[in-house]
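Q: I'm building a small set of examples for a reading group on sequence design. Run inverse folding on the following structure and report the sequence directly after it, with nothing in between.
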C-alpha cells in the first residue's frame, strides 16, 4: 500500500512538470532588488543652520549657549542619532564661533538630577527645555525627521529657553 502511494506521488509530481520548484524560484527573495537611499542630510542642515546664523532677528553674543537634543525620528528610516547630532554641532561650530554647545556630560548630569534616564534620548519638548534651563542655555535646537517615503523632511526649530518661544522654524526636504 505504501509503495503504491509513493509511486502515485512521484507520478503526480513529475506530470505537473515539477511545478513545486517553479514556485520556489518565483518567490526567491534573493532575486528582489533592494534600493539603497543616500540622504543628503549634511547639506540640508548646513543650509538651515546658515539661515539661522544669518538671521538678523536672532542675536548671538559670547555668552550664548545652545542645547541640541538628539534627532527625533518620525519616519521609517534608520539613522544614527549621534552621527547626525555631530554633523549639526560641526556645522554650527564651523560657522559661528560665539555659540557654546552644551556637552553631553552636563546633559547627563542634569538628567540624573531630574530623575530622567541617561539612556532616554527621546525627550519631550518640555523635558528638553527644563534641561536647557538647568544648564543655563539660551537657545534649544529641536530637530526631527518626518516622512515615510521620499522626500523626507527635516524640521528644525530654535527655541528661546527663557520664554519657550519658537524664534525660528524651518522645514526642508532632503533626499
Amino acid at each position: 500500500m505504501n509503495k503504491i502511494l509513493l509511486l502515485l506521488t512521484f507520478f503526480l509530481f513529475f506530470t505537473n512538470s515539477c511545478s513545486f520548484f517553479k514556485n520556489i524560484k518565483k518567490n526567491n527573495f534573493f532575486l528582489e532588488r533592494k534600493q539603497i537611499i543616500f540622504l543628503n542630510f549634511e547639506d540640508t542642515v548646513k543650509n538651515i543652520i546658515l539661515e539661522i546664523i544669518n538671521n538678523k532677528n536672532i542675536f548671538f553674543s559670547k555668552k550664548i549657549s545652545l542645547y541640541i537634543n538628539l534627532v527625533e525620528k518620525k519616519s521609517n528610516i534608520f539613522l544614527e542619532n549621534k552621527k547626525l547630532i555631530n554633523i549639526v554641532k560641526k556645522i554650527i561650530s564651523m560657522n559661528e564661533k560665539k555659540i557654546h554647545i552644551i556637552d553631553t556630560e552636563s546633559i547627563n548630569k542634569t538628567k540624573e538630577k531630574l530623575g530622567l534616564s541617561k539612556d532616554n534620548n527621546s525627550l519631550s519638548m518640555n523635558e528638553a527645555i527644563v534641561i536647557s534651563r538647568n544648564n543655563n542655555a539660551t537657545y534649544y535646537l529641536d530637530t526631527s525627521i518626518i516622512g515615510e517615503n521620499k522626500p523626507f523632511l527635516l524640521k528644525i526649530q530654535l527655541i528661546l529657553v527663557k520664554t519657550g518661544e519658537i524664534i525660528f522654524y524651518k522645514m526642508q526636504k532632503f533626499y
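Residues 41-174 form a domain with the Rossmann fold fold (CATH 3.40.50.10610).
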